[in-house]
Write a structure and sequence with these properties.
Blueprint (H helix, E strand, L loop, with lengths): L1 H18 L21 H4 L6 E9 L6 H16 L1 E9 H13 L6 E4 L6 H6 L7 H7 L1 H5 L3 H4 L3 E2 L2 E2 L2 E2 L8 E6 H6 L14 H11 L22 E2 L8 E4 L8 E2 L4 H15 L10 H9 L5 E5 L4 H9 L3 E5 L5 E2 L1 H4 L3 E4 L6 H13 L1 H9 L7 E4 L4 E3 L16 H4 L15 H11 L1 E2 L13 H19 L5 H15 L1 H18 L3
Parallel strand pairs: 1-2, 1-3, 13-17
Antiparallel strand pairs: 3-14, 4-5, 6-14, 7-11, 7-12, 8-9, 9-10, 15-16
Length: 515
């Protein structure tokens, strides 16, 4: 089997090299074959046919070599599970709205990326857009089901049912900084002395004056907000709500409006200080433009989840060498972290069994996973150290000209199956698992908000937060000046109703745990 696959891939590589003179368009989804939604692939293949399955997900642009990667994937999937997979990457800026419109219209779809922060998992469940997966996981994806303890799967449960496949990766959020190594050396600054955001300010000021650049990366999706719930010790309970949480170590499980807390005020004031000082761009650009600016040397630092190996991932993404530092202590394991990225199956899917079998392959077959995450061997990558699963770019290829560079391993499946980008990254997956295992479990770990009773209030409050909350969080206006109006408006829109309902659900959950 392996020899046959590799032989095909060698032929595919030759074909690709000939095809690179032409631009590759995103393939149109093949029409689905109606099997009533429950027939097995064996039944479909009696006549030698293939079942068509689509996979929709967010992307920073459409890779030039998408068709070739899809063809390579289907050489394996056709033979192993009788599936013909159509990849449907959608630009991040459009992904949320596109998927929400598609789901609301009841259009047929199969596998979709869903998360608390985009194409909302909880909203999709509340709207009936996702299929219950409990039985499918156990029957059609036994390797995937067995790869995580049931306690981890419980984080994805809503009203007792699983609707999304958890992508294994970093579960706690070690919020911190990734900083260009050349500038750290030039300005004789060490991250060893840094324990909080504010400790970076001498470096940022030196870079701003010495380099004439805006020091800190920001784009129009993440903005310039320094509020990160876990950094300040909070479990957000539901990232998509944006204003509720509990202190992770609070045994009373008291739900609060985090916007009213001193920690949120401090974060908002610090964001404004950095905007006013010119450390953040005054108007963040789209993610692809901001990444291009980072690659061109127009930023010195970013801040994100600084998981083991993120220095290598950032170097791959924007070209510079980085040093990273986790500033979150203690690390918190919460439900939102465990379910930060998922893949679901649409309730409208005509082939849920085959869709689940695709997810089984993406999570348990390293060859399939790395084709989607890294591209084709010999074209997009070559082995540097096959024994340690380290790859590198082929001669003449780098991150700026590769025809396939999605940089979204965390989106596609079990990231612990990913090939390393550098020798320096070897062992990162073991270190990440150790971080997962040692994180402080939130008192609400396993609790999932059911938005069904508060859908109207959530929509109303979200609209106000978009209008009045973002300028505060991103440091465009002073917290003390703008927060009173924001709080008045969200309370009028139903914020307290949301808090009361989340508190009721949390109390019921706690009682059910026998606490």
């Amino acid at each position: 089997m392996l020899l046959k696959r590799r032989s095909w891939l060698l032929l595919a590589n030759l074909a690709l090299l000939l095809a690179l003179v032409a631009a590759c368009a995103t393939p149109a989804a093949a029409p689905a074959q109606n099997t009533g939604g429950t027939e097995s692939v064996a039944a479909e293949n009696v006549g030698g046919g293939l079942v068509n399955v689509t996979y929709s997900y967010g992307a920073s642009g459409i890779p030039r070599d998408l068709q070739q990667v899809q063809d390579a994937l289907n050489t394996i999937l056709n033979e192993d599970i009788g599936v013909n997979l159509t990849l449907e990457p959608i630009d991040y800026a459009a992904y949320n709205d596109r998927m929400q419109l598609q789901l609301a219209a009841g259009e047929t779809c199969d596998i979709i990326f869903t998360a608390p922060w985009i194409n909302s998992y909880t909203n999709n469940v509340a709207n009936g857009s996702l299929l219950e997966l409990d039985d499918l996981l156990k029957e059609e994806a036994p390797g995937l089901w067995a790869s995580m303890p049931e306690s981890t799967w419980d984080a994805a449960r809503i009203n007792g049912k699983i609707y999304g496949v958890i992508n294994q990766q970093i579960f706690p959020k070690p919020w911190g900084v990734h900083v260009r190594k050349d500038l750290l050396e030039k300005y004789n600054f060490s991250l060893d002395t840094v324990t909080k955001w504010e400790d970076m300010e001498p470096f940022l000021e030196a870079v701003k004056e010495g380099e004439g650049i805006t020091p800190v990366y920001a784009d129009d999706s993440s903005g310039s907000s320094l509020w990160r719930s876990q950094y300040y010790g909070y479990d957000p309970l539901d990232d998509g709500l944006g204003f509720v949480g509990i202190k992770a170590d609070d045994e009373t499980l008291t739900v609060v409006n985090v916007i009213e807390t001193s920690e949120y005020r401090d974060a908002a004031n610090l964001s404004k200080k950095w905007v006013d000082a010119g450390y953040f761009p005054s108007t963040p650009t789209a993610a692809d433009e901001a990444r291009a600016a980072f690659r061109a040397g127009l930023f010195a630092m970013g801040y994100h989840v600084e998981k083991p190996g993120n220095d290598v991932e950032m170097q791959t993404a924007v070209g510079w060498e980085f040093e990273i530092k986790n500033l979150t202590d203690p690390l918190i394991l919460d439900t939102a972290g465990a379910t930060a990225t998922l893949n679901g199956i649409c309730a409208t899917s005509e082939h849920p069994i085959e869709a689940m079998r695709v997810l089984e392959k993406l999570n348990t077959d390293p060859e399939v996973y790395n084709l989607l995450a890294r591209g084709i061997e010999g074209v997009h990558w070559v082995w540097e150290d096959e024994a340690n699963k380290v790859i590198k770019y082929p001669d003449g290829v780098d991150s700026s000209n590769s025809g396939y560079e999605p940089n979204t391993d965390w989106m596609f499946g079990n990231q612990f199956n990913a090939y390393y980008r550098s020798q320096a990254q070897v062992g990162a997956w073991e270190a990440t698992k150790k971080m997962n295992d040692e994180a402080y479990p939130s008192q609400a770990l396993g609790f999932v908000v059911d938005r069904t009773p508060i859908q109207t209030e959530v929509a109303q409050v979200t609209a106000v937060l978009e209008e009045l909350g973002r300028p505060i969080a991103w440091g465009w206006v002073a917290y003390d000046d703008a927060a009173p109006e924001l709080l008045d408006r969200i309370n009028a829109a139903g914020a307290q109703t949301i808090i009361d309902e989340v508190q009721r659900q949390l109390n019921d959950w706690k009682a059910a745990q026998g606490q």
